[in-house]
Amino acid sequence: MCKPANSSSPGSELPAPSAAPLPTGGGEKAKDVVVDAGLKSLDHYRRALPKWRYSLRQYLLPLVRWETPYLAAFQNAVRTPALDSYFAITANLGTHTFFMIGLPILFWCGFRGFGKGLVHILAEGVFFTGFLKDMCSLPRPLSPPLQRITMSGSAALEYGFPSTHSANAVSVAVYGILMLRSEHNIYSPTTTVALEALAYFYALSIIIGRLYCGMHGFIDVIIGSIMGTAISLVEFYYAPAVEEWMYSSNYAAPLIIALIILVLVRVHPEPADDCPCFDDSVAFAGVMIGLECGMWRFARYSPYATIYNGPHASFSLAAMGWSMSITRVIFGVLMIFAWREAMKPAMLRFLPHLYRLLERVGMSLPRRFFVPASEYKDVPLHVRDDNLIPNVSDLPKVMRSIRGPGRGRSVSIGPQSAADAYETLAYRERRRRESLEGENGGVKSKGSLMSLRESAAKQNGADVFEDGGKSSGVQQQNGRVAEFEKMMGTGTVMIANEDEMILGAEDELGEKEVFSRLVKPRVRYDVEVVTKLVVYTGIAWLAVDLILVTFEMIGLGAGHLVAAL
Protein backbone atom coordinates (compact mmCIF):
# COMPACT_ATOMS: atom_id res chain seq x y z
CA MET A 1 0.00 0.00 0.00
CA CYS A 2 1.07 3.56 -0.54
CA LYS A 3 1.81 5.62 2.54
CA PRO A 4 1.86 9.37 3.12
CA ALA A 5 5.30 10.89 3.24
CA ASN A 6 4.80 12.97 6.33
CA SER A 7 7.55 11.78 8.62
CA SER A 8 8.01 14.99 10.55
CA SER A 9 8.26 15.94 14.16
CA PRO A 10 5.68 18.15 15.86
CA GLY A 11 6.25 21.78 15.24
CA SER A 12 8.30 21.25 12.10
CA GLU A 13 5.46 21.74 9.66
CA LEU A 14 5.51 24.60 7.24
CA PRO A 15 2.72 27.09 7.83
CA ALA A 16 -0.24 26.46 5.60
CA PRO A 17 -1.07 29.49 3.50
CA SER A 18 -4.47 31.04 3.74
CA ALA A 19 -6.69 31.51 0.74
CA ALA A 20 -7.23 35.00 -0.59
CA PRO A 21 -8.44 36.63 -3.80
CA LEU A 22 -5.98 36.72 -6.65
CA PRO A 23 -4.26 40.12 -6.88
CA THR A 24 -4.11 41.63 -10.33
CA GLY A 25 -1.14 43.93 -9.63
CA GLY A 26 -2.29 47.48 -10.13
CA GLY A 27 -5.05 47.16 -12.69
CA GLU A 28 -3.38 44.44 -14.71
CA LYS A 29 -5.84 42.53 -16.84
CA ALA A 30 -6.61 39.04 -15.64
CA LYS A 31 -5.66 37.50 -18.97
CA ASP A 32 -2.12 38.82 -18.60
CA VAL A 33 -1.55 37.41 -15.11
CA VAL A 34 0.33 34.15 -14.68
CA VAL A 35 -0.99 32.62 -11.45
CA ASP A 36 1.95 32.40 -9.10
CA ALA A 37 3.19 29.12 -7.69
CA GLY A 38 2.84 30.43 -4.16
CA LEU A 39 -0.52 30.53 -2.44
CA LYS A 40 0.23 32.55 0.67
CA SER A 41 -2.43 35.04 -0.39
CA LEU A 42 -1.43 33.85 -3.86
CA ASP A 43 1.57 36.10 -3.39
CA HIS A 44 4.31 34.03 -1.75
CA TYR A 45 6.94 34.42 -4.47
CA ARG A 46 6.07 38.04 -5.20
CA ARG A 47 6.85 38.84 -1.55
CA ALA A 48 9.79 36.46 -1.12
CA LEU A 49 11.78 37.44 -4.22
CA PRO A 50 13.22 40.74 -5.44
CA LYS A 51 11.18 42.25 -8.25
CA TRP A 52 13.63 41.34 -11.03
CA ARG A 53 13.89 37.72 -9.84
CA TYR A 54 10.11 37.46 -9.56
CA SER A 55 9.71 38.80 -13.10
CA LEU A 56 12.26 36.28 -14.40
CA ARG A 57 10.45 33.48 -12.60
CA GLN A 58 7.08 34.55 -14.02
CA TYR A 59 8.60 34.55 -17.51
CA LEU A 60 9.95 30.99 -17.18
CA LEU A 61 7.14 29.38 -15.17
CA PRO A 62 4.76 28.89 -18.15
CA LEU A 63 7.47 26.81 -19.86
CA VAL A 64 7.55 24.42 -16.90
CA ARG A 65 3.76 24.12 -16.97
CA TRP A 66 3.60 23.71 -20.73
CA GLU A 67 6.06 20.82 -20.86
CA THR A 68 4.64 18.83 -17.94
CA PRO A 69 1.89 16.89 -19.78
CA TYR A 70 4.31 16.05 -22.60
CA LEU A 71 6.78 14.68 -20.04
CA ALA A 72 4.00 12.61 -18.51
CA ALA A 73 3.05 11.24 -21.93
CA PHE A 74 6.69 10.30 -22.57
CA GLN A 75 6.99 8.62 -19.17
CA ASN A 76 3.72 6.75 -19.66
CA ALA A 77 4.71 5.54 -23.14
CA VAL A 78 8.16 4.11 -22.35
CA ARG A 79 8.08 3.18 -18.69
CA THR A 80 8.94 -0.39 -17.66
CA PRO A 81 10.17 -1.92 -14.36
CA ALA A 82 13.58 -2.61 -15.92
CA LEU A 83 14.00 0.99 -17.07
CA ASP A 84 12.81 2.22 -13.67
CA SER A 85 15.67 0.36 -12.00
CA TYR A 86 18.21 1.33 -14.67
CA PHE A 87 17.56 5.07 -14.60
CA ALA A 88 17.17 5.20 -10.81
CA ILE A 89 20.54 3.48 -10.36
CA THR A 90 22.42 5.35 -13.11
CA ALA A 91 21.19 8.66 -11.67
CA ASN A 92 23.70 8.03 -8.89
CA LEU A 93 26.48 8.31 -11.50
CA GLY A 94 25.59 11.98 -11.94
CA THR A 95 25.55 12.90 -8.26
CA HIS A 96 28.13 14.90 -6.34
CA THR A 97 28.63 11.98 -3.93
CA PHE A 98 29.78 9.66 -6.73
CA PHE A 99 32.36 12.15 -7.92
CA MET A 100 33.48 13.22 -4.45
CA ILE A 101 34.34 9.61 -3.61
CA GLY A 102 35.97 8.88 -6.98
CA LEU A 103 37.95 12.05 -7.64
CA PRO A 104 40.59 11.70 -4.88
CA ILE A 105 41.52 8.31 -6.33
CA LEU A 106 42.58 10.02 -9.58
CA PHE A 107 45.11 12.12 -7.67
CA TRP A 108 46.51 9.11 -5.80
CA CYS A 109 46.82 7.08 -9.01
CA GLY A 110 48.81 9.68 -10.94
CA PHE A 111 46.05 11.40 -12.96
CA ARG A 112 46.48 14.78 -11.28
CA GLY A 113 45.85 16.95 -14.35
CA PHE A 114 42.69 15.12 -15.38
CA GLY A 115 41.50 14.95 -11.77
CA LYS A 116 41.97 18.67 -11.26
CA GLY A 117 40.03 19.42 -14.43
CA LEU A 118 37.15 17.22 -13.30
CA VAL A 119 37.03 18.87 -9.88
CA HIS A 120 36.90 22.29 -11.53
CA ILE A 121 34.05 21.47 -13.91
CA LEU A 122 32.00 19.58 -11.32
CA ALA A 123 32.44 22.22 -8.63
CA GLU A 124 31.53 24.98 -11.06
CA GLY A 125 28.58 22.97 -12.36
CA VAL A 126 27.18 22.33 -8.89
CA PHE A 127 27.76 25.91 -7.75
CA PHE A 128 26.34 27.73 -10.76
CA THR A 129 23.35 25.43 -11.29
CA GLY A 130 22.59 25.82 -7.58
CA PHE A 131 23.01 29.57 -8.00
CA LEU A 132 20.40 29.61 -10.78
CA LYS A 133 18.09 27.23 -8.93
CA ASP A 134 17.86 29.49 -5.92
CA MET A 135 17.74 32.64 -8.06
CA CYS A 136 14.82 31.48 -10.24
CA SER A 137 13.07 29.30 -7.60
CA LEU A 138 11.27 27.30 -10.28
CA PRO A 139 9.44 24.10 -9.28
CA ARG A 140 10.00 20.69 -10.76
CA PRO A 141 7.37 19.49 -13.26
CA LEU A 142 4.16 18.71 -11.41
CA SER A 143 3.36 15.33 -9.88
CA PRO A 144 0.77 14.15 -10.79
CA PRO A 145 0.67 13.61 -13.75
CA LEU A 146 4.36 12.68 -13.42
CA GLN A 147 5.56 9.96 -11.09
CA ARG A 148 8.97 10.68 -9.55
CA ILE A 149 11.38 7.76 -9.41
CA THR A 150 14.39 8.36 -7.19
CA MET A 151 16.83 6.83 -4.72
CA SER A 152 17.59 10.21 -3.12
CA GLY A 153 15.59 11.66 -0.27
CA SER A 154 16.87 15.22 -0.70
CA ALA A 155 16.66 15.66 -4.48
CA ALA A 156 12.91 16.35 -4.45
CA LEU A 157 13.42 19.23 -2.01
CA GLU A 158 15.50 21.14 -4.58
CA TYR A 159 14.21 23.39 -7.32
CA GLY A 160 14.20 21.97 -10.83
CA PHE A 161 15.79 24.59 -13.09
CA PRO A 162 18.46 23.90 -14.27
CA SER A 163 19.41 20.24 -13.92
CA THR A 164 22.65 19.70 -11.97
CA HIS A 165 22.74 16.04 -13.02
CA SER A 166 22.70 17.06 -16.69
CA ALA A 167 25.36 19.73 -16.15
CA ASN A 168 27.62 17.23 -14.35
CA ALA A 169 27.16 14.46 -16.91
CA VAL A 170 27.61 16.66 -19.98
CA SER A 171 30.60 18.51 -18.53
CA VAL A 172 32.38 15.24 -17.73
CA ALA A 173 31.57 13.78 -21.16
CA VAL A 174 32.64 16.90 -23.07
CA TYR A 175 35.83 17.31 -21.05
CA GLY A 176 36.70 13.65 -21.52
CA ILE A 177 36.13 13.86 -25.27
CA LEU A 178 38.26 17.01 -25.53
CA MET A 179 41.07 15.25 -23.66
CA LEU A 180 40.79 12.22 -25.96
CA ARG A 181 41.09 14.47 -29.02
CA SER A 182 44.03 16.44 -27.64
CA GLU A 183 47.70 15.87 -28.33
CA HIS A 184 48.09 14.32 -24.88
CA ASN A 185 45.93 11.30 -25.73
CA ILE A 186 47.93 8.10 -25.14
CA TYR A 187 45.26 5.62 -26.26
CA SER A 188 44.98 3.76 -29.56
CA PRO A 189 42.42 4.92 -32.14
CA THR A 190 40.14 1.98 -31.34
CA THR A 191 40.24 2.65 -27.61
CA THR A 192 39.69 6.35 -28.23
CA VAL A 193 36.53 5.70 -30.27
CA ALA A 194 35.23 3.29 -27.62
CA LEU A 195 35.83 5.80 -24.83
CA GLU A 196 34.14 8.59 -26.81
CA ALA A 197 31.12 6.37 -27.40
CA LEU A 198 31.02 5.58 -23.69
CA ALA A 199 31.10 9.30 -22.87
CA TYR A 200 28.17 10.03 -25.20
CA PHE A 201 26.20 7.08 -23.79
CA TYR A 202 26.87 8.18 -20.21
CA ALA A 203 25.68 11.74 -20.82
CA LEU A 204 22.56 10.64 -22.72
CA SER A 205 21.67 8.09 -20.04
CA ILE A 206 21.75 10.73 -17.32
CA ILE A 207 19.82 13.32 -19.36
CA ILE A 208 17.11 10.93 -20.56
CA GLY A 209 16.95 9.42 -17.08
CA ARG A 210 16.11 12.79 -15.51
CA LEU A 211 13.17 13.12 -17.90
CA TYR A 212 12.13 9.49 -17.50
CA CYS A 213 12.23 9.67 -13.68
CA GLY A 214 10.02 12.77 -13.67
CA MET A 215 12.65 14.84 -11.86
CA HIS A 216 13.26 17.45 -14.58
CA GLY A 217 11.71 18.95 -17.66
CA PHE A 218 13.10 19.63 -21.13
CA ILE A 219 14.14 23.19 -20.32
CA ASP A 220 15.94 21.98 -17.17
CA VAL A 221 18.13 19.46 -18.96
CA ILE A 222 18.72 21.70 -21.99
CA ILE A 223 20.02 24.61 -19.93
CA GLY A 224 21.93 22.24 -17.63
CA SER A 225 23.59 20.62 -20.64
CA ILE A 226 24.49 23.99 -22.16
CA MET A 227 26.04 25.07 -18.86
CA GLY A 228 27.99 21.82 -18.59
CA THR A 229 29.33 22.21 -22.13
CA ALA A 230 30.34 25.84 -21.58
CA ILE A 231 32.09 25.03 -18.30
CA SER A 232 34.11 22.23 -19.93
CA LEU A 233 35.15 24.38 -22.89
CA VAL A 234 36.35 27.17 -20.60
CA GLU A 235 38.23 24.68 -18.42
CA PHE A 236 39.92 22.94 -21.34
CA TYR A 237 41.05 26.05 -23.22
CA TYR A 238 41.72 28.59 -20.44
CA ALA A 239 42.55 26.67 -17.25
CA PRO A 240 46.16 25.87 -18.31
CA ALA A 241 46.99 29.59 -18.48
CA VAL A 242 45.49 30.19 -15.04
CA GLU A 243 47.39 27.21 -13.65
CA GLU A 244 50.67 28.50 -15.06
CA TRP A 245 50.05 31.87 -13.43
CA MET A 246 49.26 30.22 -10.11
CA TYR A 247 52.33 27.99 -9.95
CA SER A 248 54.65 30.84 -10.93
CA SER A 249 53.14 33.21 -8.38
CA ASN A 250 53.65 33.62 -4.66
CA TYR A 251 51.01 33.02 -2.01
CA ALA A 252 48.88 35.88 -3.40
CA ALA A 253 47.55 33.69 -6.24
CA PRO A 254 45.77 31.03 -4.14
CA LEU A 255 44.67 33.75 -1.71
CA ILE A 256 43.01 35.73 -4.50
CA ILE A 257 41.23 32.63 -5.81
CA ALA A 258 40.04 31.72 -2.30
CA LEU A 259 38.68 35.23 -1.75
CA ILE A 260 36.82 35.15 -5.09
CA ILE A 261 35.21 31.84 -4.12
CA LEU A 262 34.17 33.19 -0.71
CA VAL A 263 32.61 36.25 -2.34
CA LEU A 264 30.62 33.99 -4.67
CA VAL A 265 29.37 32.03 -1.64
CA ARG A 266 28.34 35.26 0.05
CA VAL A 267 26.36 36.54 -2.97
CA HIS A 268 24.62 33.19 -3.56
CA PRO A 269 20.91 34.09 -3.94
CA GLU A 270 18.51 33.51 -1.06
CA PRO A 271 15.85 30.97 -2.13
CA ALA A 272 12.15 31.63 -1.71
CA ASP A 273 11.68 28.22 -0.07
CA ASP A 274 13.85 25.98 2.10
CA CYS A 275 16.03 24.43 -0.63
CA PRO A 276 19.28 22.48 0.07
CA CYS A 277 21.05 23.71 -3.10
CA PHE A 278 23.15 26.16 -1.08
CA ASP A 279 24.57 23.35 1.07
CA ASP A 280 26.07 21.58 -1.95
CA SER A 281 27.37 24.85 -3.37
CA VAL A 282 29.17 25.64 -0.11
CA ALA A 283 30.70 22.16 0.05
CA PHE A 284 32.10 22.41 -3.48
CA ALA A 285 33.32 25.94 -2.81
CA GLY A 286 35.37 24.47 0.03
CA VAL A 287 36.64 21.75 -2.30
CA MET A 288 37.84 24.37 -4.79
CA ILE A 289 39.66 26.37 -2.11
CA GLY A 290 41.38 23.28 -0.73
CA LEU A 291 42.27 22.03 -4.20
CA GLU A 292 43.90 25.26 -5.35
CA CYS A 293 45.77 25.92 -2.11
CA GLY A 294 46.88 22.31 -1.72
CA MET A 295 48.14 21.86 -5.27
CA TRP A 296 49.93 25.22 -5.16
CA ARG A 297 51.73 24.31 -1.91
CA PHE A 298 52.60 20.81 -3.13
CA ALA A 299 53.98 22.04 -6.46
CA ARG A 300 56.12 24.81 -4.92
CA TYR A 301 57.31 23.42 -1.60
CA SER A 302 56.91 19.64 -1.44
CA PRO A 303 60.12 17.59 -1.91
CA TYR A 304 57.99 14.99 -3.68
CA ALA A 305 56.54 17.35 -6.29
CA THR A 306 58.73 16.05 -9.14
CA ILE A 307 57.32 12.55 -8.64
CA TYR A 308 53.79 13.65 -9.56
CA ASN A 309 54.09 16.99 -11.38
CA GLY A 310 55.62 18.16 -14.62
CA PRO A 311 56.54 16.50 -17.93
CA HIS A 312 59.21 14.35 -16.26
CA ALA A 313 57.04 12.99 -13.43
CA SER A 314 58.28 9.56 -12.41
CA PHE A 315 55.02 8.17 -11.01
CA SER A 316 53.86 4.99 -12.75
CA LEU A 317 50.70 3.20 -11.72
CA ALA A 318 51.84 0.01 -13.46
CA ALA A 319 55.18 0.04 -11.62
CA MET A 320 53.37 0.71 -8.35
CA GLY A 321 51.47 -2.57 -8.59
CA TRP A 322 47.88 -3.45 -7.75
CA SER A 323 48.41 -4.30 -4.09
CA MET A 324 50.24 -1.06 -3.34
CA SER A 325 47.71 1.02 -5.30
CA ILE A 326 44.72 -0.51 -3.52
CA THR A 327 46.40 -0.04 -0.13
CA ARG A 328 47.03 3.64 -0.95
CA VAL A 329 43.37 4.16 -1.88
CA ILE A 330 42.09 2.48 1.29
CA PHE A 331 44.48 4.43 3.51
CA GLY A 332 43.64 7.72 1.77
CA VAL A 333 39.88 7.20 2.12
CA LEU A 334 40.32 6.37 5.82
CA MET A 335 42.30 9.58 6.33
CA ILE A 336 39.51 11.63 4.70
CA PHE A 337 36.83 10.04 6.88
CA ALA A 338 39.01 10.51 9.98
CA TRP A 339 39.42 14.22 9.19
CA ARG A 340 35.70 14.65 8.66
CA GLU A 341 34.70 12.72 11.78
CA ALA A 342 37.12 14.75 13.93
CA MET A 343 36.74 18.24 12.46
CA LYS A 344 32.98 18.42 11.96
CA PRO A 345 31.99 17.83 15.64
CA ALA A 346 34.76 20.17 16.79
CA MET A 347 33.49 22.97 14.55
CA LEU A 348 29.86 22.40 15.55
CA ARG A 349 30.85 22.67 19.23
CA PHE A 350 33.09 25.73 18.90
CA LEU A 351 31.41 27.91 16.27
CA PRO A 352 28.07 28.59 18.05
CA HIS A 353 29.94 30.42 20.84
CA LEU A 354 31.86 32.51 18.30
CA TYR A 355 28.69 33.27 16.33
CA ARG A 356 26.90 34.49 19.47
CA LEU A 357 29.77 36.87 20.18
CA LEU A 358 29.60 38.17 16.61
CA GLU A 359 25.83 38.66 16.90
CA ARG A 360 26.30 40.82 19.99
CA VAL A 361 28.56 43.22 18.11
CA GLY A 362 26.32 43.23 15.02
CA MET A 363 28.64 41.22 12.77
CA SER A 364 26.37 38.24 12.06
CA LEU A 365 25.56 37.34 8.47
CA PRO A 366 22.09 35.80 8.71
CA ARG A 367 20.80 33.60 5.91
CA ARG A 368 17.18 32.64 5.36
CA PHE A 369 16.15 29.20 6.68
CA PHE A 370 19.27 28.92 8.88
CA VAL A 371 18.64 29.19 12.63
CA PRO A 372 20.93 31.83 14.22
CA ALA A 373 23.17 30.75 17.10
CA SER A 374 21.30 32.97 19.56
CA GLU A 375 18.19 30.81 19.11
CA TYR A 376 19.66 27.40 19.97
CA LYS A 377 21.96 25.98 22.62
CA ASP A 378 23.82 23.19 20.84
CA VAL A 379 23.92 21.66 17.36
CA PRO A 380 23.18 17.91 17.28
CA LEU A 381 26.50 16.27 16.46
CA HIS A 382 24.90 13.59 14.28
CA VAL A 383 22.75 15.94 12.23
CA ARG A 384 22.37 14.65 8.66
CA ASP A 385 23.63 17.81 7.03
CA ASP A 386 25.75 16.30 4.27
CA ASN A 387 24.59 15.24 0.82
CA LEU A 388 28.13 14.59 -0.48
CA ILE A 389 30.04 12.26 1.83
CA PRO A 390 28.04 10.06 4.26
CA ASN A 391 28.72 9.87 7.97
CA VAL A 392 30.66 6.82 9.15
CA SER A 393 27.52 5.71 11.01
CA ASP A 394 25.65 5.73 7.69
CA LEU A 395 28.16 3.53 5.82
CA PRO A 396 26.31 0.22 6.55
CA LYS A 397 23.17 1.71 5.03
CA VAL A 398 25.16 2.90 2.00
CA MET A 399 26.67 -0.56 1.50
CA ARG A 400 23.25 -2.21 1.72
CA SER A 401 22.01 0.24 -0.90
CA ILE A 402 24.90 -0.70 -3.20
CA ARG A 403 24.30 -4.44 -2.75
CA GLY A 404 20.58 -4.11 -3.35
CA PRO A 405 19.93 -0.80 -5.08
CA GLY A 406 16.41 -1.67 -6.09
CA ARG A 407 15.29 -1.66 -2.47
CA GLY A 408 16.28 1.98 -2.14
CA ARG A 409 14.11 3.09 -5.02
CA SER A 410 10.77 4.73 -4.43
CA VAL A 411 8.04 6.17 -6.61
CA SER A 412 6.43 9.33 -5.27
CA ILE A 413 3.21 10.89 -6.48
CA GLY A 414 2.18 14.33 -5.35
CA PRO A 415 3.93 17.44 -3.98
CA GLN A 416 7.05 16.73 -1.92
CA SER A 417 8.52 20.18 -1.30
CA ALA A 418 7.15 23.63 -0.56
CA ALA A 419 7.83 24.64 -4.17
CA ASP A 420 5.81 21.63 -5.36
CA ALA A 421 2.94 22.51 -3.05
CA TYR A 422 2.81 26.15 -4.11
CA GLU A 423 2.81 25.16 -7.77
CA THR A 424 0.12 22.51 -7.23
CA LEU A 425 -2.16 24.95 -5.44
CA ALA A 426 -1.49 27.75 -7.93
CA TYR A 427 -2.23 25.59 -10.95
CA ARG A 428 -5.38 24.34 -9.24
CA GLU A 429 -6.43 27.94 -8.60
CA ARG A 430 -5.75 28.83 -12.22
CA ARG A 431 -8.03 26.06 -13.47
CA ARG A 432 -10.72 27.04 -10.96
CA ARG A 433 -10.51 30.67 -12.02
CA GLU A 434 -10.73 29.78 -15.71
CA SER A 435 -13.78 27.66 -15.01
CA LEU A 436 -15.54 30.44 -13.09
CA GLU A 437 -14.73 33.03 -15.73
CA GLY A 438 -16.08 30.73 -18.40
CA GLU A 439 -19.33 30.18 -16.52
CA ASN A 440 -19.82 33.88 -15.79
CA GLY A 441 -18.92 35.02 -19.28
CA GLY A 442 -16.05 37.12 -17.96
CA VAL A 443 -12.79 37.88 -19.65
CA LYS A 444 -10.99 34.55 -20.02
CA SER A 445 -7.37 34.24 -19.04
CA LYS A 446 -4.88 32.42 -21.21
CA GLY A 447 -6.43 29.06 -22.00
CA SER A 448 -5.14 25.73 -20.82
CA LEU A 449 -3.29 23.37 -23.13
CA MET A 450 -6.35 21.20 -23.55
CA SER A 451 -8.70 24.05 -24.48
CA LEU A 452 -6.19 25.49 -26.94
CA ARG A 453 -5.75 22.10 -28.63
CA GLU A 454 -9.50 21.57 -28.87
CA SER A 455 -9.95 25.01 -30.40
CA ALA A 456 -7.18 24.39 -32.93
CA ALA A 457 -8.55 20.96 -33.79
CA LYS A 458 -12.02 22.37 -34.44
CA GLN A 459 -10.60 25.08 -36.67
CA ASN A 460 -8.80 22.39 -38.68
CA GLY A 461 -11.95 20.36 -39.05
CA ALA A 462 -10.91 17.49 -36.76
CA ASP A 463 -13.44 15.62 -34.66
CA VAL A 464 -12.90 15.98 -30.92
CA PHE A 465 -14.53 13.34 -28.75
CA GLU A 466 -15.51 13.70 -25.13
CA ASP A 467 -12.80 11.29 -23.96
CA GLY A 468 -10.08 13.34 -25.63
CA GLY A 469 -9.65 10.91 -28.54
CA LYS A 470 -9.00 12.17 -32.06
CA SER A 471 -9.51 10.74 -35.49
CA SER A 472 -5.78 10.13 -36.11
CA GLY A 473 -2.83 8.67 -34.21
CA VAL A 474 -1.30 12.11 -33.71
CA GLN A 475 -4.60 13.49 -32.45
CA GLN A 476 -5.00 10.54 -30.09
CA GLN A 477 -1.59 11.32 -28.67
CA ASN A 478 -2.67 14.94 -28.20
CA GLY A 479 -5.72 13.64 -26.40
CA ARG A 480 -3.55 11.69 -24.00
CA VAL A 481 -1.45 14.79 -23.37
CA ALA A 482 -4.65 16.70 -22.61
CA GLU A 483 -5.70 14.03 -20.14
CA PHE A 484 -2.38 14.36 -18.36
CA GLU A 485 -2.91 18.11 -18.19
CA LYS A 486 -6.19 17.50 -16.37
CA MET A 487 -4.22 15.73 -13.65
CA MET A 488 -2.00 18.75 -12.96
CA GLY A 489 -2.78 20.31 -9.59
CA THR A 490 -4.37 17.15 -8.16
CA GLY A 491 -3.23 14.31 -5.98
CA THR A 492 -1.93 13.57 -2.51
CA VAL A 493 1.63 13.03 -1.35
CA MET A 494 2.19 9.31 -1.77
CA ILE A 495 5.30 7.11 -1.68
CA ALA A 496 5.32 3.65 -3.23
CA ASN A 497 8.02 0.99 -3.17
CA GLU A 498 9.08 -0.54 -6.48
CA ASP A 499 6.63 -3.42 -6.07
CA GLU A 500 3.77 -1.10 -5.10
CA MET A 501 3.57 1.45 -7.90
CA ILE A 502 0.01 2.56 -7.28
CA LEU A 503 -1.24 5.95 -8.41
CA GLY A 504 -2.45 8.09 -5.53
CA ALA A 505 -6.07 9.17 -5.42
CA GLU A 506 -6.61 12.39 -7.31
CA ASP A 507 -8.47 14.15 -4.55
CA GLU A 508 -7.85 17.86 -4.39
CA LEU A 509 -6.71 18.46 -0.83
CA GLY A 510 -7.05 21.86 0.76
CA GLU A 511 -4.06 24.08 1.28
CA LYS A 512 -3.40 23.04 4.90
CA GLU A 513 -3.58 19.34 4.02
CA VAL A 514 -1.21 19.74 1.09
CA PHE A 515 1.42 21.42 3.24
CA SER A 516 1.00 19.04 6.18
CA ARG A 517 1.80 16.04 3.96
CA LEU A 518 5.07 17.40 2.58
CA VAL A 519 8.47 15.83 3.14
CA LYS A 520 9.78 18.30 5.70
CA PRO A 521 13.27 19.80 5.30
CA ARG A 522 15.49 19.40 8.33
CA VAL A 523 16.43 22.23 10.66
CA ARG A 524 19.60 23.98 9.48
CA TYR A 525 21.97 25.95 11.70
CA ASP A 526 23.96 29.05 10.81
CA VAL A 527 27.29 27.46 11.78
CA GLU A 528 26.88 24.75 9.13
CA VAL A 529 28.07 27.08 6.36
CA VAL A 530 31.52 27.70 7.84
CA THR A 531 31.70 24.10 9.07
CA LYS A 532 31.20 22.82 5.52
CA LEU A 533 33.74 25.26 4.12
CA VAL A 534 36.40 24.17 6.62
CA VAL A 535 35.67 20.44 6.39
CA TYR A 536 35.63 20.29 2.58
CA THR A 537 38.59 22.63 2.22
CA GLY A 538 40.48 20.19 4.41
CA ILE A 539 39.27 17.14 2.47
CA ALA A 540 40.52 18.56 -0.83
CA TRP A 541 43.81 19.77 0.68
CA LEU A 542 44.41 16.34 2.21
CA ALA A 543 43.67 14.56 -1.07
CA VAL A 544 46.05 16.58 -3.25
CA ASP A 545 48.84 17.36 -0.80
CA LEU A 546 49.06 15.99 2.73
CA ILE A 547 47.95 12.42 1.95
CA LEU A 548 50.56 12.16 -0.82
CA VAL A 549 53.24 13.33 1.62
CA THR A 550 52.00 10.79 4.16
CA PHE A 551 52.23 8.02 1.54
CA GLU A 552 55.93 8.78 1.10
CA MET A 553 56.56 8.88 4.84
CA ILE A 554 54.96 5.51 5.67
CA GLY A 555 56.29 3.49 2.74
CA LEU A 556 53.27 3.73 0.42
CA GLY A 557 54.82 6.40 -1.79
CA ALA A 558 56.36 6.41 -5.24
CA GLY A 559 59.82 7.59 -4.19
CA HIS A 560 61.25 4.12 -4.78
CA LEU A 561 60.32 4.50 -8.45
CA VAL A 562 62.80 7.38 -8.73
CA ALA A 563 65.55 5.33 -7.09
CA ALA A 564 64.91 2.46 -9.49
CA LEU A 565 65.52 4.63 -12.56
What does this structure look like?
- This protein has about 575 residues and is mainly alpha-helical.
- The chain has one domain (about 1-10, about 35-305, about 320-435, about 445-565).
- Helices cover about 60% and strands about 5% of the residues.
- It contains 20 helices and 6 strands.
- The chain has helices spanning about 45-50, 50-80, 80-90, 95-110, 110-135, 165-180, 190-210, 220-245, 250-265, 275-300, 305-310, 315-320, 320-360, 395-405, 420-440, 450-460, 475-485, 510-515, 530-555, 560-565; strands spanning about 5, 150, 370, 410-415, 495, 525.
- A 4-stranded antiparallel beta sheet has the order 1-5-4-2, with helices on one face. The chain has a two-stranded parallel ribbon with strand order 3-6.
- Helix 5 (about 110-135) packs across helix 8 (about 220-245), helix 5 packs antiparallel against helix 10 (about 275-300) and helix 6 runs antiparallel to helix 7 (about 190-210).
- Pfam families: PAP2 (PF01569).
- It comes from Triangularia setosa.
- GO terms for molecular function: sphingosine-1-phosphate phosphatase activity.
- Its main location: endoplasmic reticulum.
